[in-house]
Amino acid sequence: MxxxxxxxxxxxxxxxxxxxxTPLPQDDGENPLAQIxxxxxxxxxxxxxxxxxxxxxHSARVLDLTADIIGMNAAHYTVWGYRFKTLxxxxxxxxxxxxxxDWSWRKELDWVQSxxxxxxxxxxxxxxxxxxxxxxxxPTGERDRTNEMFASDSKNYHVWTYRQWLVKRFNxxxxxxxxxMDLLLDDDVRNNSAWNHRYFITLGRLGAEDPAxxxxxxxxxxxxxxxxxAPQNPSPWNYLKAVLRKGNINLASLKDxxxxxxxxxxxxxxxxxxxxxxLSEIYDEAGDFVRAEQALVLLAAKYDPVRKNYWRYRKxxxxxxxxxxxxxxxxxxxxxxx
Amino acid sequence: xxxxxxxPTVAFTNKPEELFVEKHVKYIQSLDTRKDEFEYWLTxxxxxxxxxxxxxxLHLLNHxxxxxxxxxxxxxxxxQHPSGGFGAHPEHDAHLLYTLSAIQILAIVDALDAVDxxxxxxxxxxxxxxxxxxxxxxxxxxxxxxxxxxxxxLKILGRLDAVDxxxxxxxxxxCQNYDGGFGVVPGAESHSGQIFTCLGVxxxxxxxxxxxPASRDQVAGWLAQRQLPNGGLNGRPEKLEDVCYSxxxxxxxxxxxxxxWIDQNKLVGWILSCQDDVRGGFADRKGNAVDVFHTVFAxxxxxxxxxxxxxxxxxxxxxxxxxxxxxxxxK
Lengths: 338, 331
What we know:
The complex is a heterodimer. By secondary structure, chain A is an all-alpha fold. Chain A is built from 15 helices and no strands. Among the domains of chain A are: 173-249, no CATH class; 257-327. Chain A has helices spanning 40-54, 61-72, 77-92, 105-118, 124-136, 142-152, 157-169, 175-187, 192-202, 215-229, 234-246, 255-261, 273-285, 289-303, 308-317. The termini of chain B are close together. Chain B contains 14 helices and two strands; from the N terminus they run H-H-H-H-H-H-H-H-H-H-H-H-E-E-H-H. The longest helix of chain B has 14 residues, at 47-60. In chain B, helix 5 (96-108) runs parallel beside helix 7 (144-156), helix 7 runs parallel beside helix 9 and helix 11 packs parallel to helix 13 (292-304). Chains A and B meet through helix 3, helix 7, helix 9, helix 11 and helix 15 of A and helix 2, helix 4 and helix 10 of B.
């Protein structure tokens, strides 16, 4: 019972454990658009699921049945929902330890992890996991689980969304979390998901609050080092600008740093269009419209011509303050829920 | 967002390739006759979405009658639950994603009175949470996608008054990130698809001006950055291009009146290279297997940049402009 070995093939029609359930085949009526030729084993398992749902059966065998169906079609959201209801019912009735069922929430989480690795794009899995961890009120091991997923796809949106929920739900804005982002960004400095999460745990969660002493300086240094490794990588540039806004630090403080990657006067080797972009803003604010325009012309003509209309638009805005973000913008308010 | 506020669309002086209209129509029609194929039952959970994607594509291709209207309506009806919401397929649980598809299909074929719309309004309104966000279904997953699907459903049914629109707008505004984009929930990474849903919410509630001009420019600039040197668009920085972003990115730029910030000629050439020129349909990128999801979003992208012969698509609702004009009047 509840072994979830994929080699265990159950024939529901002949297995004695299922004789009390009346299978309910899909009723498509006379509707030709609805009729689908399902493989027989899937159709059979689904008719037994309809059968157990009809009598509201939440016994341990439902775990086998739903695991079997999820193994064939992991995206069937109804099946996940019924499985969760069944797990909750089994816990209430002490059905995990009734002598013949060898199951537990921890085993469920192991099984979910194995399914997650098979179906990386599936989001029902992560919601299921979230419902369980929320219910257990215990995040133990969950960061390791998500780190394991990042090892094969470090930008998986579903996994990141789950990770952020975890951090918020259990107030995990801590050194371990920051260290995890250090590792991910060390491995791939272009991982925008990790940059976003870094902002979330360092500054984003604060909303309107001020960061602790030293955080702004530490993050500026971190972003600048990342830029030096890959100057054309947009993520740390966006990050750096956001950190400055949060710290109420003038963009002009980046002038020397940007000119290293984009000398415009005299024109030298340009290694970052993003530096050129920021320089145009810095020159504009300083009233040096000649250089500001020169930077934008270089972008439109030479370094980013695919967006030439955008750079021309920016040129028209020179001298106005219409395109300047105010400090309070772009800092979503995120509060820990625990 | 009024399409008349857009700059004139680019005239394609040197059309890189041809759009195989008849082949795409045949491909979409053939989907209905492939029910014994493995992929077909595996996508059962997307069935109602699939009908919406196929129907929208056929309308844009100017073949509105290529799917049988009566059977389509009958199928949509068979997906409605006693709760008022719709499942992906008969006997699947109700979910907002399928509820919107159901209502869009009926709006496109002008048959909204075929289902119990009052029950549908009750179902959708019941999914709004106190934070303003919507859950997708009774399991409670929260996502800006569901704010969009919930509000668009109600807007089509003329019942935005059934929910707290201001709270929903505030939730969406709280999902804007430091780079200007939007994610699934506050703090989540910016993603072109989520930007579409968030700008869609602001557009259909006439609250786009809650973003400052600088903020609108920032998100439009981020969207323009999604174009890669080969012309294709990606969904996030440092990710691969994919045809579906021809919709998520372009519709968002269109809502902001900044379609011209990308190189449309290059994009069109790239989209056309993703066609299956033998059997019809579009793939996520050149040489891959086609599907109806990528087919409709490729066509929507081409429609937004004014490709000749295609019907105009509404960037806010992802339905033919003919439909949204009938529903909401001329813009």
